[in-house]
C-alpha cells in the first residue's frame, strides 16, 4: 500500500474512533471492510482468541451486516462469536457481564439514521476508552486494512443466543415492582430498541408475571429510519409526542428511551420533563439505603460534573460520599470500578449500577423511579419537585468553528467573577456573597459531534437565565 493510501486509512479510522466509542456515517467513515478489521483488532486487543466475544446490534438498516462483518473479523482471529442479534445496549452489557465475555454493540445511539457505530466492552461489561484500549484497537485495525487480516490456525465459530428473557428476569431481581400501586405509563420507544425491551421487562413478552403497570406504547415498531422523530429524548422537540400522549391518556407518567434504549427520560402527569438529575437523586437515595441496610459503610456514589448541585447534596445528606467525574460512559465505568461506587448518575440520563457490572442501564433506572414513585400517593409532578429545587438550563448545543476563541471570550468575561475548573471542558463556579443565589456553568466540546455544549444551573430561574444568556452570547459571538 502506498504511503498516501496508508495515510488515508489512518485518517478514516481517526475520524470514526471517538473518545469512548466508534461513531460515523455509514458508507463514508464506516464500511463493512473497516468494521471487519475492527473486529479482528478487538479480539487481539482483549485477548479473546479461543474465548467468546458477544456481538449485538440495534435496528438500524446497516447494523445486521456490520455485526456480521465484525463477527467474521473476530472469528478469523480465533474468537467464538456469540451473536445475540437485536438488542438494547444495556442488554449487550448484560450478556457481557453474565457471560464474562468482551462485547461489541452496533448502534449510533441517538444519532440520525445515516450514522452507526460500536460500543465496546471488555469482559464483565467493563468500558474501553481511547486511554484504555480503543486507541490500540484503532491502530491494529489500520494495520489490518493496509495488510489484510491474517487468520489464525484455530479459527473461531459463530453461534447464536437469545438473552432477552434472562436480561428481563435479572432486572426484576434488582427492583421489585410487584407491590407498587397500579400505574398507567406511556412509553415512547422512538422506533428504537425500547420497543423490544419494554414489553419484556415491564410486560409479559418474556414470559414473566404481569406487573401492576398499564403500558401505552408509542412508536414501538423497530425502524432505524426513525419515521416519527429522532430517538434523542435529550432534545425537547423529541419529547412533544410523549408529553401530549401522557396528558391525553390521563397517565401517571411517561418514559422515553433513546435509540439503543440505554438512556431513559421521565415525564410527569402534566407532561413536564423530570430532570435526569432528579432521577439520579431518587435512584441514589434508594441504592444508598439498600446497601446501608445490609451493613455497608463508606458508600461512594458517582455523579458527573453537569448534574444538578442537588445530586451531591442528596448523596452527602444520605451519609454517602459523592464522587465527581468527567462526562462519558467508558470513563464513568472505569470510575465505578475504581471507587466501588454503588451507583453513578449523569445528567445525560445515563445511570450506572454496581449490581449491573458497573454499566449503565436506563431501564433499571426507570424501574427504580417506578418503585419509589409507586410506593407513595402524590402525583409525579409533586413527588419529583422534591428532587429538583434549583433551576437548570438543560444542555444547549451550539455549532462552533473556533472553540479556543470561544473559551478565551468566556474566560475574559468571567475572570474575577468565578472559580475556574478544567476537569472536563470549562466549569465556572460563581463567586456570590451573602444571600445571592449560587450559579455555575460548564462548556465542553462534544466527543461525537461538532458542537459546544453548555449547561447552566442557578439557585433560582432569573439567576440561571442571566448567566445562560450571557455565556450563549459569548459562545455564538464569532
TrEMBL record:
<keyword id="KW-0479">Metal-binding</keyword>
<dbReference type="Pfam" id="PF00408">
    <property type="entry name" value="PGM_PMM_IV"/>
</dbReference>
<dbReference type="Pfam" id="PF02880">
    <property type="entry name" value="PGM_PMM_III"/>
</dbReference>
<keyword id="KW-0413">Isomerase</keyword>
<dbReference type="Pfam" id="PF02878">
    <property type="entry name" value="PGM_PMM_I"/>
</dbReference>
<protein>
    <submittedName>
        <fullName>Phosphomannomutase/phosphoglucomutase</fullName>
    </submittedName>
</protein>
<dbReference type="InterPro" id="IPR036900">
    <property type="entry name" value="A-D-PHexomutase_C_sf"/>
</dbReference>
<feature type="domain" description="Alpha-D-phosphohexomutase alpha/beta/alpha">
    <location>
        <begin position="17"/>
        <end position="140"/>
    </location>
</feature>
<dbReference type="Pfam" id="PF02879">
    <property type="entry name" value="PGM_PMM_II"/>
</dbReference>
<keyword id="KW-0597">Phosphoprotein</keyword>
<keyword id="KW-0460">Magnesium</keyword>
<dbReference type="InterPro" id="IPR005843">
    <property type="entry name" value="A-D-PHexomutase_C"/>
</dbReference>
<feature type="domain" description="Alpha-D-phosphohexomutase alpha/beta/alpha">
    <location>
        <begin position="166"/>
        <end position="271"/>
    </location>
</feature>
<dbReference type="InterPro" id="IPR005845">
    <property type="entry name" value="A-D-PHexomutase_a/b/a-II"/>
</dbReference>
<comment type="similarity">
    <text>Belongs to the phosphohexose mutase family.</text>
</comment>
<dbReference type="InterPro" id="IPR005846">
    <property type="entry name" value="A-D-PHexomutase_a/b/a-III"/>
</dbReference>
<feature type="domain" description="Alpha-D-phosphohexomutase C-terminal">
    <location>
        <begin position="395"/>
        <end position="472"/>
    </location>
</feature>
<dbReference type="InterPro" id="IPR005844">
    <property type="entry name" value="A-D-PHexomutase_a/b/a-I"/>
</dbReference>
<feature type="domain" description="Alpha-D-phosphohexomutase alpha/beta/alpha">
    <location>
        <begin position="280"/>
        <end position="389"/>
    </location>
</feature>
<dbReference type="InterPro" id="IPR016055">
    <property type="entry name" value="A-D-PHexomutase_a/b/a-I/II/III"/>
</dbReference>
<dbReference type="InterPro" id="IPR005841">
    <property type="entry name" value="Alpha-D-phosphohexomutase_SF"/>
</dbReference>
Amino acid at each position: 500500500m502506498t504511503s498516501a493510501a496508508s495515510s488515508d486509512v489512518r485518517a478514516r479510522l481517526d475520524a470514526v474512533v471517538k473518545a469512548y466509542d466508534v461513531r460515523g456515517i455509514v458508507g463514508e467513515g464506516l464500511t463493512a471492510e473497516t468494521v471487519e478489521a475492527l473486529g479482528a483488532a478487538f479480539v487481539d486487543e482483549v485477548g479473546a482468541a479461543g474465548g467468546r466475544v458477544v456481538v449485538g446490534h440495534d435496528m438500524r438498516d446497516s447494523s445486521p451486516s456490520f455485526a456480521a462483518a465484525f463477527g467474521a473479523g473476530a472469528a478469523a482471529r480465533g474468537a467464538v462469536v456469540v451473536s445475540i442479534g437485536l438488542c438494547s445496549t444495556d442488554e449487550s452489557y448484560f450478556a457481557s457481564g453474565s457471560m464474562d465475555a468482551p462485547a461489541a454493540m452496533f448502534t449510533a445511539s441517538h444519532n440520525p439514521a445515516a450514522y452507526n457505530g460500536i460500543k465496546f466492552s471488555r469482559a464483565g461489561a467493563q468500558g474501553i476508552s481511547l486511554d484504555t484500549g480503543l486507541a490500540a484497537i484503532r491502530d491494529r485495525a489500520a494495520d489490518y486494512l493496509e495488510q489484510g487480516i491474517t487468520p489464525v490456525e484455530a479459527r473461531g465459530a459463530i453461534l447464536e443466543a437469545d438473552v432477552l428473557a434472562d436480561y428481563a428476569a435479572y432486572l426484576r431481581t434488582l427492583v421489585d415492582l410487584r407491590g407498587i400501586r397500579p400505574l398507567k405509563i406511556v412509553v415512547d420507544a422512538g422506533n428504537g430498541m425500547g420497543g423490544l425491551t419494554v414489553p419484556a421487562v415491564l410486560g409479559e413478552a418474556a414470559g414473566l408475571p404481569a406487573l401492576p403497570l398499564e403500558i401505552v406504547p408509542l412508536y414501538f415498531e423497530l425502524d432505524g429510519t426513525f419515521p416519527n422523530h429522532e430517538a434523542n429524548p435529550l432534545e425537547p422537540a423529541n419529547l412533544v409526542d410523549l408529553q401530549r400522549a401522557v396528558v391525553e391518556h390521563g397517565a401517571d407518567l411517561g418514559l422515553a428511551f433513546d435509540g439503543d434504549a440505554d438512556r431513559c427520560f421521565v415525564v410527569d402527569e402534566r407532561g413536564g420533563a423530570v430532570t435526569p438529575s432528579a432521577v439520579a437523586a431518587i435512584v441514589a437515595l434508594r441504592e444508598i439505603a439498600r446497601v446501608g441496610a445490609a451493613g455497608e459503610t463508606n458508600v461512594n456514589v458517582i455523579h458527573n460534573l453537569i448534574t444538578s448541585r442537588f445530586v451531591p447534596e442528596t448523596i452527602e445528606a444520605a451519609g454517602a460520599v459523592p464522587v465527581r467525574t468527567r462526562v462519558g460512559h467508558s470513563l464513568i465505568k472505569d470510575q465505578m470500578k475504581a471507587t466501588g461506587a454503588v451507583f453513578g448518575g449523569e445528567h445525560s440520563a445515563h445511570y450506572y449500577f454496581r449490581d449491573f457490572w458497573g454499566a449503565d442501564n436506563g431501564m433499571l433506572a426507570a424501574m427504580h423511579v417506578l418503585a419509589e414513585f409507586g410506593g407513595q400517593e402524590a402525583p409525579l409532578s409533586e413527588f419529583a419537585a422534591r428532587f429538583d429545587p434549583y433551576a437548570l438550563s438543560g444542555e444547549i448545543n451550539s455549532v462552533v468553528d473556533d472553540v479556543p476563541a470561544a473559551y478565551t471570550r468566556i474566560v475574559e468575561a468571567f475572570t474575577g467573577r468565578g472559580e475556574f475548573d478544567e476537569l472536563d471542558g470549562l466549569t465556572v463556579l460563581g463567586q456570590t456573597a451573602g444571600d445571592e443565589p449560587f450559579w455555575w456553568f460548564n462548556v465542553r466540546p462534544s466527543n461525537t459531534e461538532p458542537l459546544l455544549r453548555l449547561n447552566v444551573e442557578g439557585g433560582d430561574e432569573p439567576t440561571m437565565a442571566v448567566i445562560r444568556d450571557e455565556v450563549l452570547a459569548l459562545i455564538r459571538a464569532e
